[in-house]
Design brief:
This protein is of the alpha/beta class. It has a single domain, classed as Alanine racemase (TIM Barrel, Alpha-Beta Barrel), CATH 3.20.20.10. It is built from nine helices and eight strands. α4 packs across α5, α5 runs parallel beside α6 and α6 crosses α7. About 40% of the residues are buried. It binds pyridoxal-5'-phosphate. Pyridoxal-5'-phosphate binds next to β8.
């Protein structure tokens, strides 16, 4: 059985306390880090809890799952895509998501731009970068990031708001933590370089999940994407 709302509320309160602690330790304003609950694999009730708790958005990693859930939950939330997107699903994704965090190729940029333009909208996006050089992870390679950004900035129907990454796992908890710090510091450096080179702000850094959000906040994250700590383990 899925958790009840009181369980969710207690976990969300605790998580927000830990976020504030991490912000204080890093000398950051707690208002500068947003919590994006990740509802993937969980029932529509997960998204309903997020509305009731008063948070504005959820993250999903599959297009069709999110389309179905959004139809059940309604438009009280913004829906963000955080999982890999194939170009042939760009049209559906552009129609149903309020922001796409997983834009990782020029081909996808062009498909999304055409779909958003056809739909008469400007679609917010983040560029996903493989900042941890993880061979198993999606995301554009750091050396390809400047071209990807230039291509995205050239699309009037897209608005590039920042970057996203996922840290690679290590063989041990210590190694995982070291990878996370290195990956998040690297993404911030890549953002600073790109912002200077292209003279755009790129304010959002989407980095940090259940296991590594405190490290991500220490390295400048503005969006943490958290599933397990809020909703429990996935099947
Ligand atoms: C599932 C997922 C998350 C949430 O992971 P947890 O460890 O459950 O917090 C965050 N980001 C992405 C891209 C995901 O796919």
């Amino acid at each position: 059985m899925f958790i009840d709302f009181e369980t969710f509320r207690a976990r969300a309160d605790k998580l927000r306390g830990l976020m504030q602690d991490a912000c204080r330790a890093a000398g950051r304003d707690p208002a500068s880090v947003k919590l994006l609950p990740v509802t993937k694999t969980h029932p529509p009730a997960a998204a309903e809890y997020v509305v009731r708790y008063g948070l504005p958005a959820v993250g999903e990693n599959r297009v069709q799952e999110a389309v179905d859930k959004r139809a059940a939950v309604g438009d009280a939330l913004r829906w963000e895509l955080i999982g890999h997107l194939q170009s042939n699903k760009a049209k559906l994704a552009a129609a149903h998501f309020d922001r796409i965090q997983s834009v990782d190729s020029e081909k996808l940029v062009k498909h999304l731009a055409r779909s958003a333009s056809d739909q008469g909208k400007v679609l917010p996006v983040l560029l996903q970068i493989n900042a941890g050089n993880d061979p198993a992870k999606f995301g554009a390679e750091p050396e390809d990031a400047p071209r990807l950004l230039e291509t995205a900035l050239a699309q009037p129907s897209l608005r590039v708001e920042g970057l996203m990454t996922i840290a690679p796992l290590g063989a041990t908890p210590d190694e995982t933590k070291a990878h996370a710090r290195r990956t998040f510091a690297n993404l911030r450096r890549i953002r600073d370089d790109l912002a200077a080179r292209c003279a755009v702000p790129l304010p959002e850094l989407s980095m940090g999940m259940t296991g590594d959000f405190a490290d991500a906040i220490a390295e400048g994250s503005t969006i943490i994407r958290v599933g397990t700590a809020l909703f429990g383990p996935r099947e």
